[in-house]
Amino acid sequence: MKNRLSLVLALMLLCGGVQAFDPVEYFDKKCSSCHTIGGGDDVGPDLKGVTERRDQKWMMRFIRESQTVINAGDPIAVELFNKYRKKKMPDQDLSDEDVLALLDFIKSGGQGLEKAIASKSALEATGDEIHRGGQLFSGEVALAAGGPACIQCHSAGSAGPLGGGTLGPDLTQSYSNYNDQGLSKVLTKIAFPVMDQVYAGKALTEAEVYQLKSFLLKMDREGPAGKGAQKKFVFLGLIGLFLGFGAIDLSWRNRRRKSSRPTIGESE
Question: Where do the structural domains in the chain lie, given as residue ranges?
């Protein structure tokens, strides 16, 4: 009897620890950086009325594995992908029940979702704000919440003397790709795979979002690092190579001089 009671209590604790799916919270965290519900197209399409326009089975599959559907040549998926600048939507690891709850929430018009407040345009940024954004990007100035610097995984124009990381995509044209408000939302609610884990509990401040956005606008305008930057890298590499050979040669000469000196007791 005691064993059965213990089993029941354990199951109750286990079930109580499983958090129920909240479509409002999920949409706000994972979807709102690219989509609106009745607010017009953004980085991705406005989802108002999508449950009437698309087949439910199609939507369930697309939400879970959009790139698989696109790569399979689905005409609707390919059309949307091309229309919205080929932005890749992360796959969503959701159960059937979770996806249906999310679709019901979208169908309701997004009730309970706070409307996004328009952020200040990067076009109004001062030189100091842009410079600060560059320092945050490169890691010269640490992010307030302790998140890693962007340059560890990304590159952007001429940022950094040796360029940036390659784990993530190049961000040189991120301002053009996401637009001003879209980039603010992407930086505020980081929902990309890996990044959402890395920055969990380390959200950027409003000032950091604006400064980084302003810096990325500058990189967008300047364009990718050109041949000048590549020549500089090669030049620095050659200097390092010659210095290395010079050090080896000097060391070798010193050894030869020491070995050619007569030792004590050796006849002249």
Answer: 19-107, 122-222
Task: Give φ, ψ of 21 to 5 degrees.
Answer: -70, 125
pLDDT of 203 > 90? The answer is yes
Written out in words, the top-level CATH class of the domain with range 19-107 is mainly alpha
Phi and psi (nearest 5°) for 110?
80, 35
Fold of 122-222: Cytochrome Bc1 Complex; Chain D, domain 2 (1.10.760)
Greatest CA separation for the chain: 105
Rounded to whole angstroms, the Cα distance separating 176 from 200 reads: 26
- CB of 92 closer than 8 Å to CB of 64: yes
Rg for the chain (alpha carbons), in Å?
28
The 3-state DSSP class for residue 225 equals coil
At residue 260, what is the residue type? S
Q: What is the chain's mean pLDDT, rounded?
A: 84
CA distances from 175 to 100, 118, 209 (A): 33, 16, 13
Name the residue type at position 56.
Q
pTM of the complete model: 0.70
